[in-house]
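Researcher: Next entry in the queue.
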Amino acid sequence: MEFVSTTAASNAPRSYSRIRVRPLTGAIGAEIFHVDLRRLDDLAFAELRQAATDHLVLFFRDQQLDLDEYQAFAARWGSFGTDPFVATMDDHPHVIRVLKEADEKHPLVFGGAWHSDWTFLPTPPSWTLLYARDVPDYGGDTLFANTYLAWEWFSDTFRALLEPLVAVHSPQRAYGADARHNDLLENMKILYGEKAHLSGRHPLVRTHPESGRRALFVNPGYTTGIEGMRPDEAQSLLSYLFQVMTHPAFQCRFRWEPGSIAMWDNRCTLHNPVSDYLGKRRELYRITIAGEAPYLTAAA
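Model: Structure for this entry, 300 residues:
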């Protein structure tokens, strides 16, 4: 593949009065400092929302929230989302405990492939939040990729080819009756059922409702085809798109610590948890925020 790049301007920070922002890479992600998520006034939250729009993924360190406080912070971003294939906690029905114990026998990790969350749903999640309680001293990082930049990197001719396409998304490979690899997740309850046989159709390119920018909206985890194309045709095109979308020039990598929170915009990012910590314990808490049906508006 030819040389791929971006510029530092793609992830440049603004100046704020209540928070400090430090970009993680030139492409995506920013660490947020001088903030206690238990005590956010409206101005600080408005600055966080602007930073989230700019940087797509926000990272917080040294937060000391209980699960009720964590849910309260998440609720400020919108209504809670639906998690159709993973059991939530009995006492916190909007929270998934993402747990891998040190004595598990298989390196498989929950969500262990490049994806955007639940894209097969009619209204996929907007935001996902992940809060670390116990993590390895090394290993278990999460990768993120900016799908605005992938779209903008393509030629005008290629973008014109992609604009009218509709992608097919399905949970079948991950949660269908034959997807028993998830049984290797010894400490998480995966919910199999008829919903795994359903599929969703969304524009291959979507307009972000807040930024107005366009982003590719396909992913290796759930995108299974393109309407009107033979399977081999679709797979060839999707493979190329995935290669560009996950190029290192469009990525950042986050190293977890206890008390860290990451939150990312599923509408313009992909993420991938790295499986490199077998033999070490990792416990995090996940919340999704409901989104809207993806759409593509005419170019300005």
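Model: The chain has one domain: 11-289.
Researcher: Noted, moving on.
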